[in-house]
Amino acid sequence: MGENGLLIIGSSQAGVQLAVSSRALGYAAPVTLLGDENHRPYQRPPLSKDFLQDKITKESLIFRSQEFWDEHRITVVKGERVDKIDVTPDGTGTAWSASGRAFPFDRLALTVGARARRLEVPGADLDGVLYLRNADDALDLKARTPGAGRVVVIGGGFIGIEAAASLHSLGKRVTLLEFADRLVARAVGAETSRFILDHHRRAGIDIRLGSAVDEIVGHDGKVRAVRVGGEEIAADIVLVGVGVIPNTELAEAMGLRCDDGIVVDRHAVASDGTTLAVGDCANLPNPVPGSPAGGRVRFESVNHAIEHAKVAAHALVGRQEEYAGIPWFWSNQGDLKLQIAGLSSGYDRSVVRSPADPLKHSVLYYRGDRLIAADCVNVPLDFMAVKQALSRGVSLPPDAVADPGAPLKSLLAEATAPDEGNPSS
Amino acid sequence: MPKITFAAADGDTRTIEANIGDSVMETAVRNGIGGIVAECGGSLSCATCHVIVDEHDFASLPPMEEMEDEMLWGTAVDRAGTSRLSCQIRVTEGMDLGVTLPETQV
């Protein structure tokens, strides 16, 4: 091992995990974790939830104590944006930050994440049009919240809905505009979209589907309203959550293959055969056991960032660990705790379990006879049972799961042999 | 300061001084207790911060809510009589808590 060690660009969830896992696996050379924000490495998920609602402090977002980093000889550098990387064919090189600092490395890892997609309509650059991707975004939004009575949220994905629920709980009048004909269409099935929609409408959020924003209307450079069709919806703040774009610019400049993210193999290694790319920025072979062969995915989730980083850490120390796992996601939206196990895309049958409680909802998805995913709202028992069934490669009989009185855990215990052999391929 | 003693499944123990108001999970993660994963960062979504509380400390903790109880049925190692999710245990003044970590969290 050389003396420069591992340079991790991006002190994200993936970057932190890669640093920690590389040490856990015995990587002994220096490890540097480089971030472009002026914050110690922190967790993002609470930014749209508890942090926005003032339930937790900034301090509680911090991943690890300085003592931990010191003890594990991990150098954490903040506020340095890398804009140039020189790399030799053997994988060693130097990264240069905009401020002119040089960061030499023996091995490079890109955990550069994704950035918020910008809204492209007239008025999008007005003061008061906000995004929610990083801590500075959240601090800005929080600073403006007390003076804002009316908020328009553009985008009905996780971030938009979570923020809308948080802002509504703070007493704001919230309108949410979604372009598609249902909420969170990319991540949940139609029944779950409907359940979420009904709940938040009942709670008092004005949700409008099929709404294309024409213009953000300003006054003196500040946002005043959002124009949709012929209507102007008054707004003191506009919060945009219309998805993210993977940060591939550094990888592209290095000549790495990119296609909706940095293309990596099963070991999180990019097309140059040495650079690691991990987390939201990486496009990888679908790791879900039983998924159609040849498919590639890019995940945006904490679970993936962690699991993918572990795979990359193995590659770093020369152990070929293939990524196989059940992705899972969560979204806390006011009173709703949504938990998703597996990927439902490509399902041909869904079974709704309808508990008597109007705050609870659970749907299982099948492809053929094979259980592939579940959306669960406020039913952690179902979520945990499906997650375990998927991990073990067993299905749960669709007819039996339709009875909401039948505990999935019991069905899981009854389910016997894996239906497609050992899933840990 | 309040103290929490983490006993790994292999018997290794480590005692950490904790801050009042933090959760037991946060205390563990920030100090690098390996047996606590806490993927969801404490939002009661993942059940990977499972601990088994020492018998004589268990009753001194505030009782758990339904959601935590449900999540505990899905832990990687089956729950024991004094199992809790450590993200739901707040550090309080004078706390001297002992917990054992399960063999695995995932």
TrEMBL record, chain A:
Gene3D superfamilies, alphabetized: 3.30.390.30, FAD/NAD(P)-binding domain
InterPro entries per UniProt: FAD-oxidoreductase/Apoptosis (IPR050446), FAD/NAD-bd_sf (IPR036188), FAD/NAD-binding_dom (IPR023753), FAD/NAD-linked_Rdtase_dimer_sf (IPR016156), Reductase_C (IPR028202)
Domain Reductase C-terminal: 328-412
Names of required cofactors: FAD
Keyword Oxidoreductase assigned: yes
SUPFAM superfamilies membership: FAD/NAD(P)-binding domain, FAD/NAD-linked reductases, dimerisation (C-terminal) domain
Keyword Flavoprotein on entry: yes
Keywords: FAD, Flavoprotein, Oxidoreductase
Ranges for domain FAD/NAD(P)-binding: 7-309
Protein name (Swiss-Prot/TrEMBL): FAD-dependent oxidoreductase
Organism of provenance: Microtetraspora glauca
From TrEMBL, chain B:
Domain of life: Bacteria
Swiss-Prot/TrEMBL keywords: 2Fe-2S, Iron, Iron-sulfur, Metal-binding
Full protein name: 2Fe-2S iron-sulfur cluster-binding protein
Species this protein is from: Microtetraspora glauca
Keyword Iron annotated: yes
Gene3D superfamilies: 3.10.20.30
Cofactors named for this entry: [2Fe-2S] cluster
Protein family (similarity comment): Belongs to the adrenodoxin/putidaredoxin family.
Keyword DNA damage annotated: no
Domain 2Fe-2S ferredoxin-type positions: 2-105
Classification via InterPro entries: 2Fe-2S_ferredoxin-like_sf (IPR036010), 2Fe-2S_ferredoxin-type (IPR001041), Adrenodoxin-like (IPR001055), Adrenodoxin_Fe-S_BS (IPR018298), Beta-grasp_dom_sf (IPR012675)
